[in-house]
Specification:
6-stranded parallel β-sheet, globular, 6 strands, Rossmann fold, 15% strand
Length: 226
């Protein structure tokens, strides 16, 4: 190899290395957005608190993480009337399209944490309506595909059906091809909280720990997939 060929090869290699380094740096600086959705009709109560605890734990995992809580309490969200768009289903415009949908589509979150209270060992009607309405995120393509999603539930009893609610929500999300994320010990399936203290959920140390572990796992998954 003569001097000219050597220099050309060296410059080309340096350019490639620089490009790779720039791309890696860009990935490292990219903001990771994790959105929590509280599906309790009671605004700002135990489910919203539990989701916020999980979001706070997620945010502490990495400086790039930004979090946002969507509290559906007091909002008017009807279930689906069929179809995947308002036009298809003749669905009237309500708080889902006005408030919730833009936060889930523009842009799509890097991670999701969904919480519902446990009513008669099942998810809330508001949660069911919300899950039906996010069907619009499946067409023309699966916008939530491969998004890590953690689920939590709050019940009136320690074993009040919280894990059943978590399973129900996870089953719906399989239709979006999301990635179900459990927590570390105490939250392998999801976070389970107990509202036994007149809405002071912070007294449930076990449940709070499960919410934090869930948030951490969602954050770790989002980082790996970014």
């Amino acid at each position: 190899m003569n001097r000219r060929e050597f220099l050309a090869t060296t410059v080309a290699a340096g350019t490639t290395t620089s490009t790779v380094s720039t791309s890696a740096a860009a990935r490292n600086e990219r903001t990771i957005r994790i959105v929590g959705v509280s599906c309790s009709p009671r605004e700002g109560k135990t489910t919203a608190t539990g989701v916020q605890i999980a979001l706070d734990a997620a945010r502490d995992v990495d400086t790039r993480i930004r979090t946002e809580l969507i509290d559906l309490g007091e909002l008017q969200i009807a279930g689906s009337l069929g179809g995947t768009t308002s036009a298809d289903s003749k669905q009237a415009t309500d708080d889902f399209e006005l408030y919730a949908l833009p936060k889930l589509r523009d842009p799509v979150p890097d991670g999701l944490i969904i919480g519902s209270p446990c009513y008669f060992r099942s998810m809330s009607a508001l949660c069911k309506a919300f899950l039906e309405r996010i069907g619009v995120l499946r067409k023309p393509k699966l916008l939530l595909a491969d998004t890590p999603v953690g689920v939590l539930s709050v019940g009136a009893y320690r074993n009040g059906g919280q894990e059943l609610v978590i399973q129900e929500i996870q089953t719906v999300l399989l239709c979006h091809e999301t990635m179900s994320v459990g927590g570390k010990p105490r939250a392998h399936q999801g976070a389970t909280l107990w509202n036994a203290y007149q809405d002071d959920i912070m007294k449930d140390e076990y449940g709070i720990a499960s919410a934090k572990q869930l948030g951490i796992r969602v954050a770790e998954a989002a980082i790996r997939l970014t």
